[in-house]
Amino acid sequence: MDYLVHILILFSIYGMLAISLNLVVGYSGLLSVTHAAFYGIGAYATTLLMINLDLNFFLSLLIGMVFSGGTALLIGLVLSKFKDDFYAIASLGFNVIVYSIMLNWQTLTRGPLGIPAIPRPSLFGFSFFGNFWFLILVLFFLIITYLIARSIVNSSFGRVLKAIRENELATQIFGYNTKYFKLTIFVIAAVMAGVAGSFFASYVSFIDPSTFTMHESIFILSIVILGGLANLRGAVLGAFILIILPEALRFLGLPNEIAAQSRQLIYGVILVLLMLYRPQGLIGEFKLK
Fold it and tell me: Contact 34/89 with Cβ under 8 angstroms?
């Protein structure tokens, strides 16, 4: 039972990450590879506020959302100068920059040593220390994230995002400031990623920079592509598959040194097959050009 709860908590965290990134990649057509940076900013901001200033988790979470959103605003302004492949490369570069700051600003982040003993959330005297209650809390935030994302994509704002994805120049001709729409959704997605980072830090009670590398950004992007671009249910499905799959392979009875490599091999084969035969993902509505 405890193992199942652990898997569901991880699924909920990565579900939030996938939903938020799908808003940028699937609905706006922007190939962002910097999502782990905002994930990490949320995690570190919440952790440092809780440990150094003894703030409540939920207040720290709100401030962490502001930090993630503020950073995304600055990064998004720069990224708006780029298009297509150059956008992806520039976003990847920002992920490397944020990771380097986390690694080398040791007086603040403790660098590669990481930050241990991160407390669990508590509200009105009730502590979410038990994993079951923590799961209830993080599932609640996953549902809220999904509902907010759905309201965005079903609104007139979401329709403009889809128009930008299909033909940005035509959208501009109709009088829309496309840079504003792309920057806004980029910031919203970063705020959601910051929330996921806050829950991750509190759940594992330890963070270090190695969790928030460009490889993590690529993994989150893989979840979105697997489940389905421009489909919020696809993002949740992708998170479920790529979190459950490695765990299911543990039960094949392979030696530890072989099992880890096998998981990576199967994971890679699945992505290659998807790119060949189903580039929009399992239930996606859009495919990257």
Answer: no
Decide: helix, strand or coil at residue 127. strand
Q: Are 158 and 33 in contact (CB under 8 A)?
A: no
Tokens describing residue 123: 């509200």
Q: Give pTM, 2 decimals.
A: 0.94
Closest among 68, 77, 14 to 37, alpha carbons compared: 68
Residue 131 belongs to a domain = yes
Domain assignment present for residue 165? The answer is yes
Q: Report how far residue 94's alpha carbon sits from residue 79's, in angstroms, rounded to the nearest whole number.
A: 9
pLDDT in tens, 9-45: 999 999 999 999 999 999 999 999 999 999 999 999 9
Residue 277 lies in a domain: no
**Sequence-ordered list of residues with C-beta below 8 angstroms from that of 94, at least 6 positions apart, any chain:** 34, 37, 75, 78, 79
Interval 150-200: pLDDT, tens: 999 999 999 999 999 999 999 999 999 999 999 999 999 999 999 999 999
Number of domains in the chain: 1
What's the longest Cα–Cα distance across the chain?
60
